[in-house]
Amino acid sequence: MEVAPGIFRLELPMPFELRHVNVYLLRDGEGFTLIDTGLQTDESRQTLHAKLASLHVPIERINRILITHIHPDHFGLAAELREQAKAELVIHRLEVALMEPRYARAEDLVHDVAAWLSTNGVPDAEAEFVKTASMAAREFVKVVEPDVLLEGAERLGIDGGELEAVWTPGHSPGHCCFYWPDRRVLFSGDHLLPKISPNIGLHPQSGADPLDDYLQSLDRIKGLDVDLVLPAHGDPFPEPRDRIAAIKQHHEERKTALVKLTSDSPRTGWDLAGQLFQGIRDRNVFQQRLALQETLAHCQSLAVEGRLRKQVTRELVTWKAA
Ligand SMILES: [Zn+2]
To answer: Do residue 177 and residue 273 come from a single domain?
Structure first.
């Protein structure tokens, strides 16, 4: 699991469709830096501790924890590990702003989400169903106050060199990749994955135009000299440019499909999601909600570009080809 000298990939289990998340342990002189933490579950916790033990790394030698973003599989164990290791916790400040409403005052968020589902065309019965999907996430996370806040472009000393925080909003508003220029290594979090394209969704906690944020963030990564990408899910892969081109093409195809689907009459996001993602109504509520968010992110980007007309009333948001 040593993927480069002094860089260890620790694969941790998840009880989801996506079976694993990678966290990375980086040797830093006598100590270590950990990138992401895995879920707050017994299974994940035990696996992490077993892997650290097999590397002969006592938890106290981890003196810094970097977080790519606060989704439960990346951030779940952060509070506990920081406490045990007395480590410094480092997160982008836009992620910190999401933490309280998402995990501590989830009832308020659920209220906002219900209104949002309704204006995007989700029928009442199904709205009740879909809005509960995110509540389960709370079990896997604990709210915590970070020690260092990032905005992007920070240089963090590591093993005689520097690790650069690269702000890459899109999948989450304060998502960060971590770039080690001396080693030509990029820790890409969920921003760039080898097999799947990360969910880019428009929803009450997202940026206002997350798909365009995401595409611009991909360009930021394209400018870096990278020989090895270490993603949060799946295997390491060499330089990111081919993968970036494929992901961009995928999003453009989705946008073209949406322009077609809205050529006759104005449609809601829910309606469009059902057509863009065939068979989605038979999938679980979590998948349905991601499909809606993903559809809306593409519609918003098209509206900003002027290819769709976005109509808004108090009751309904609709989209129609321009
Ligand atoms: Zn994520």
So the answer is: no
**Protein residues within 5 Å, CB atom, of ion ligand 1:** 71, 190
CA–CA separation, 175 vs 228, rounded Å? 19
Q: Are 95 and 180 in the same domain?
A: yes
Q: Which residues does 277 contact at the CB level (< 8 Å), separation at least 6?
A: 291, 294, 295
Would residue 87 count as lying in a domain?
Answer: yes
The CATH number assigned to the domain holding 296 equals 1.10.10.10
CA 263 to ligand 1 centroid distance, Å: 33
| Ligand 1 centroid from CA 75, angstroms | 10
Per-residue model confidence (pLDDT) at position 144: 84
Tokens of 252: 């453009």
What per-residue string of b and e applies to 244-273 under the rule 16 or more CB within 10 Å gives b?
beebbeebeebbeebbebbeeebbbbbbbb
Task: Give the pTM.
Answer: 0.94
- Give 11's Cβ-side CA count (13 Å radius): 11
**Residue-level pLDDT at 138:** 59
pLDDT score, position 206: 93
How far apart CA 320 and CA 260 sit, in angstroms, is 9
Instruction: Using alpha carbons, select from 137, 225, 232, 242 the residue that is nearest to residue 179.
Output: 225
User: Which among 191, 219, 240 is the end of a domain?
Assistant: 240
**Helix 285-305 to helix 241-261 angle, to the nearest 10 degrees?**
90
pLDDT by 10-residue block (mean), the chain, 322 residues? 96 92 97 96 97 97 97 93 97 89 68 87 77 58 86 97 98 97 98 95 94 98 97 96 96 98 97 95 87 97 98 96 97
